[in-house]
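During the reporting period, we have paired protein sequences with C-alpha cells. One record among many follows, to show the layout:
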Amino acid sequence: MVLLLFVDLDPELKALDALGGFFVLRTGVPPGGPLPTLASAFADPWSATSSEVYGDPITFRVQKVSQSIRAPESRVAASVAQQGLAARFWSIALGAAALCGRLPDLDPELLFWDPDAGAPDDLRLGEVRFRPVSDLDAVVRAGLLVPLSAALRSRHRVPPGLLWGNAGSALAGTVRQLDRWALAHGRPDVGERARALAGRLFAHPDLAATLDPGTLRRRSCCLYYRVPGGGVCGDCCFDRPPRPAPRRS
C-alpha cells in the first residue's frame, strides 16, 4: 500500500509540475539554442571571456539581479542570486525525492542554465538519469552548492557563512512549501518524507549551524535589508534592519 502513494517520476519529470513553478525542471535540448552548463558557469573566472551570458554566466546573473533590486554593492546581489539558485536546486531535488521517491541526477555537466531567465525556464536537464535518494546531499550540497559558492566568492567578497546561511534558509523554505502542498492535497506522506530528508541534510557541518533549531531563524543575514526598501526577511537573525555604524571623525 505504501508504494501506491508514490507518484511515478517519468523521464520528462512532469510529476514535479504539480508542486509549482519553482519545482519544475525542463528536460531535453534548449529550444532557443545552446546554453551554458552549470559546470561552465562554475569555471574559473579568469577563463571567462566577458560578462555576457556565454562568457561568464555567474557575473551576468549577479549584474542582472543587481539592476533588478538596485543593490548598493555587488556582494548583496551575489547573495540574493545565490539564494535563488539554492532554492531552485533544493526544490527540484527534494521535491522529486519527497513526492516520487526518486532523485534526478543534477550533474552540472548535464544541467543547462539560462542566467537571463527565471523559474522554471532557467534550468534544463539535458539528459535525465536517476540516482538513489540517499545521494541527495552529494547531488545538491556537494555537487551544486559547493562549486556555486566557490564561483561567487572568486568574484565577490561574500562570506562563506552567509552563503551557507542562504542555503539553509532555502532548504527550510522548500520544506515549508512541500508541507503546504502536502496538506492541501491530502498527501501527509510527502511532507513527512521532506522533513525527514531535510533533517539528514541539516546534519552536515555546512548546514548544521545555519538555523536556530527551535525557531528556524537563520544565524546569518543575507544582506537583503541593504536593498532600498528591502527590510528583513521572515527568518532573519535581525528583528529590524541594522543601522550603519557611525563614522569616526
